[in-house]
Amino acid sequence: MYYLLIFVCFVSTLLDSTNTHALNESLMICSESHEDRRLFMQDKPRSAYAQLPVIYFVTPTYPRREQIPELTRLAHTLLHVPRLHWLVANDRDRCDKFLDNMLNKFGIPFTYLASPMPSKFRNTKPAPRGVANRRAALQWLHQRNLTAGVLYFGDDDNTYDLRLFSEIRQTQRVSMFPVGLIAEYAVSGPVVRNGKVVAFLDSWVAGRRWPVDMAGFAVNLAYMSQYPNVNMPFKPGYEEDLFLRSIGLRIDQIEPKGNNCTEILVWHTQTKNKKSPTVRIDSALLNDRFNLGALFHSLKVMGVASASDTEGPRAVISKNGKGKPLSYFLS
Ligand SMILES: *[C@@H]1O[C@H](CO)[C@@H](O)[C@H](O)[C@H]1NC(C)=O
Ligand SMILES: *[C@@H]1O[C@H](CO)[C@@H](O)[C@H](O)[C@H]1NC(C)=O
Ligand SMILES: *[C@@H]1O[C@H](CO)[C@@H](O)[C@H](O)[C@H]1NC(C)=O
At 3, is the pLDDT very low, low, confident or very high (cuts 50, 70, 90)? Predict the structure, then answer.
């Protein structure tokens, strides 16, 4: 009874929470390119795809050691996908030249946003990660009155099968499909019967009407534009549910993808998140006589590692299987 009461209170605070305020984000557009500079995709010239609806692929990302490798890997998936606009929203209060250059080089149309989590949420546990970023992307779409194309939320650490993109591109309202490696069952997705979604399989229900992963659905922008109060509240665990509630979704409208939800086209891979180390290296090795100065400079810019003369575990520099003292390299 006690638990039931708590549960009821919890659910009733879901929708009237102060966290559901309307979209009015302090986003910064760092850079963008609407030009597709890729010549060929999947062995066809870019022009072969001109009629396809655009996929707006929204990637929330945040500074950490794994950020640049994750985005590099994701970019190399997206390079194969025609008619895609990549919205990269970084959880940082300013733009970053390195990320700007990197995104520019791929030739994929993109918009790079700086959309930091509001400071009042920074110390909450769990923090609503990625929400400010997705809200910023929703606002960007809204401000451009984009009513053609398909929206998809694709985190930087997932694995995407290229067939996913052909499937979601045809979304009329909201499409859904299973996501692999989610929580306890290692899968989350719709239950389909006779080609219709009738229920959901997900190990964490918690009162959610739409217990799906962020990567498990796509939304048509013409459909979404009918709901001016589209929202994604700062409510950890309930982002998908409340977003889908804000666009008036009904279960009979859901379009199952991935061969009636029998295939996995996206995986919630996740990478181990480790602290970026400080490596102790004598400053004599960090000048321009060696590569190490430039190498560690670039690692620092990417947030991967930094070198210090005085802190951290001393780096072993070896030759022929033996660590050598500094004097060996300087002589
Ligand atoms: C949006 O936010 C700005 C500053 O954060 C504030 O001045 C403005 O009143 C807000 N607008 C709405 C409609 O809430
Ligand atoms: C979007 O539509 C609104 C209202 O019709 C209009 O005021 C605004 O200028 C449009 N914005 C763009 C970028 O077309
Ligand atoms: C999904 O199932 C329905 C009903 O059994 C069937 O008509 C439809 O062809 C199936 N779709 C796919 C893509 O297999």
Answer: very low
- CA angle at 299 for the pair 286 and 65, rounded to the nearest 5°: 145
283/263 same-domain check = no
Pocket around ligand 1 at a 6 A CB cut-off:
24, 26
Answer whether residue 273 is part of any domain. no
Active-site entry in 240, 255, 263, 311: 240
Give the residue, out of 29, 142, 145, with the most ligand 2 atoms within 8 A of its beta carbon, to mutate for a pocket test. 145
- Residues 175 and 314 both lie in one domain: no
Q: Which atom of ligand 1 is nearest to the CA of 21?
A: 14
How far, in Å, are 33, 51, 62, 165, 277 from residue 110 at the CA level? 5, 19, 17, 17, 31
CB 61 within 8 A of CB 156: yes
Q: Of the ligands numbered here, which is closest to the C-alpha atom of 24? A: 1
Helix-helix angle 97-106:67-78, to 10 degrees: 20
- Report pLDDT for 19: 61
Helices (H), the chain: 2-16, 67-78, 97-106, 119-122, 131-143, 162-168, 221-224, 239-246, 258-261, 292-301, 326-330
Residue 52 CA to ligand 2 center (angstroms) comes to 24
- The verdict on 226 and 304 lying in the same domain is no
Per-residue confidence (pLDDT) for residue 18, from 0 to 100? 47
Q: pLDDT at position 329, please?
A: 87
**Whether 240 is catalytic:** yes
19 CA distance to ligand 1 centroid (A)? Answer: 15
Average pLDDT over residues 12-34: 75
Confidence of residue 108 (pLDDT cuts 50, 70, 90): very high
Distance 241 CA to ligand 2 centre (A): 29
Same domain, 33 and 138: yes
